[in-house]
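Reminder to self: keep the SMILES exactly as supplied, no canonicalising. Ligand is pyridoxal-5'-phosphate.
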Amino acid sequence: MPLTALTDGELRAGRGLKWSRAPAGVIPADIAELDFALAPPIRAVLSSAVERSDVGYPDYTGGAPVRLAELFAERTRRRMGWSPEPARVEVCAQVVQALCCALLAFTRRGDEVLLHSPTYPPFLEAVRSLGRRPLLLPVRGAGVAQWAAVEGARRLRLVVLCHPHNPTGHVFGRAALERLAGLAVRSDAVVFADEIHAEIVYPGTEFHSIASVRAAAERTIVFTSAAKSFNIAGLRCAVGHFGGAELHARFRRLPWHLRSGAGALGIAATIAAWESCDDWLDQLREQLGTNRTRVTDFMSHFEQIRFVPPSGTYLAWLDLRATPAASDAHGYFAKTAMIFLQPGSVFGASLEGFVRMNFGTSEERLDSLLERFGRALDGSSGKG
Ligand SMILES: Cc1ncc(COP(=O)(O)O)c(C=O)c1O
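Structure tokens returned for the bound complex:
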């Protein structure tokens, strides 16, 4: 089952956000989409549904959504080392939708919500637009004072974990997860973990879900989807598990149309991904591992760049504050290098000297991207 890189022409002809907004000549590496063709079983199931006009309402009470919940439970047990209860699984359209629902179900206006900084922008937007207050903890190296502020929060009701973390690719160790779980217990807060990137973790790092931390298991919600690792974000299907019956019941009190919405094609594609595409995923991970090494080697030639290679995700978070790009890193590279990187400023205040680079592309395109990046900085291609 081959991993096939799409050509520039194919990508530009598509509707995906990443390429459709990039003018001719620009290499986009901002939006978190992959530049690879669909895994063949996913393509087959989608083509077959379209051929047969099989795009009616899914039967949420007994058909594919129930199969999906069972598959999620089985796959999680096999690959993630903890055991979801199929009866406590929910199928939604999007992971961020599930977070919005959790905010409505488990917090009130004015409550505090723990997020890690830098923060995946839709999390911040959801928390703020619903009138909750973000409480930020650095994703790595939080100090005593920062922890004390969080421990002392009076109205902490939700601990949100982006794990692996977007944009840094950080994977939390067991001790860090236990500390966060302990905080949730002491504060009587619910834990919401977005594990959408959990299948892209590199050799040398072991991924543990916070759902496997016993102390907070009953108050923990985990959501994931095939959107990132199988590149089907437009199909809208997300799956999650509620660690306790009461937690689940409170979520289910929200109107059904608010908390559901997965489409027939998204469900079918997710089942195909999780049932039949492990070989494809292995190849993708190998390619992304090669790309990650390439990015790491490349960045090591630039003393002014600070970069911690990601343990998971296909995203590189680059600290360019000591470079000529510091004041607006995104604008600098768009103008001088014809490459689009995700601006750091969208991940939090005072982060305009950072950018997020998506390296989920072919080796050839990654080489062009890095070459342009290096030239824009100091005329060097970074090859030393
Ligand atoms: C951490 C994280 N969560 C969620 C999403 C989007 O998923 P969804 O459309 O299911 O909300 C992304 C997309 O890049 C992501 O990186």
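Points to follow up:
The two ends are 36 Å apart (CA to CA).
The domain at 8-38+277-378 is CATH 3.90.1150.10 (Aspartate Aminotransferase, domain 1).
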